[in-house]
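It is worth pausing here to work through a concrete case rather than discussing structure prediction in the abstract. The textbook approach is simple: state the sequence, then state the predicted structure, then interpret. We follow exactly that order.
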Amino acid sequence: LLLALQHVSVMIVPSTAVAFIVAGAVGASAADTTFLVQMVILFAGVATVVQADAVGPVGAKLPIVMGTSFAFVGAMASIGASSGLDVVFGSIVVAAVIVPFLLGWQFKRLQSFFPPLVTGLIVVIIGLYLVPVGIQYAAGGVGAENFGSMQNLALAGLVLAIAVLFNLLLRGVWRMMSVIIGIGTGYVVAIAFGIVDFTPFYEAAWIAVPNPGRFGFSFELIPLLTFAFLFLVSGMETIGDMSGITAAEGRTPSEDEFRGGIFADGFISALGAVFCSFPQTSFSQNVGIINFTGVMSRHIVGIGGALLVVLGLVPKIGAIVTTIPSAVFGGAVLIMVGMVAASGMRLLFLNIDMNRRNMVIIATSLGLGLGVATVPS
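Step two, the predicted structure:
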């Protein structure tokens, strides 16, 4: 249960942040914003359980933690502001079924395009791309009044130090739970210094009831094509994350694992959109937890998914997690995203020869992949 909670604690804040950003961009009311946040949590749980245990061909039977992807934020915010959330959810329902289905159905033909050199590089780039996110959390979160303050950096540093020291110096349960012990210690210290705001907990309701079609569904060609492309990008990220998970065993995923994981990405995103949840995809930070702790049990992640379902239906409990300061999460996220990159490097070093051809491919991919990410303008 505690190992499952460790997975939940790392992903829940960035996942719900997507809902807050989009709700703010479209001018949603406080009630609608709360509803969107709860549906995002609920269907992250459903998707995680499906990935861990599988329902027929849907699900990879791997410890994949699912959450709302930041890849969709810009499109959802701009399309929602200009055309309405009905167009957003209508487009997601259609695109989420078509693109992942085609990608998974034809994966045997496409698999030759994803040798360890490619999947390993995807994992490395995902990890390095997320490093600035970890630093932003450690500094207090983008837009925070005390961004970069010594208080925030000290909290993040405390969490990071505890997680690393427990992992390297201790054994057994203390090593496996090093991340949540670090977060818990940082949270207690933050409470002691009076920097935790419990208002979200007091204001949260006890029960959230799913309400399908709350914002309606509409269809427009350009938004539909936009989301179709984004689901293709999301599929590449899921392929990379699955490769990062199995790297803990020194292998790449099987064809069935790849196909099931991609199917789950699409079908749960489509089902979630019916209930007004945003698209679900694998969470790279949790890949880092698996490689950091060495615990690859899909049953633990399945319990984490069940916890997310409870949090989605009982906002009062979920609100407790949102009171944890960003700086506390920053210390954990920083080491997690670093571990994602490290797991990608392991895939590369175990499976490819570092000859001139492969070195050129790695150099070009890192240069373009990180160059565009670091200078988006």
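Step three, interpretation. The chain is about 75% helix and 0% strand. The first helix runs from residue 2 to 26.
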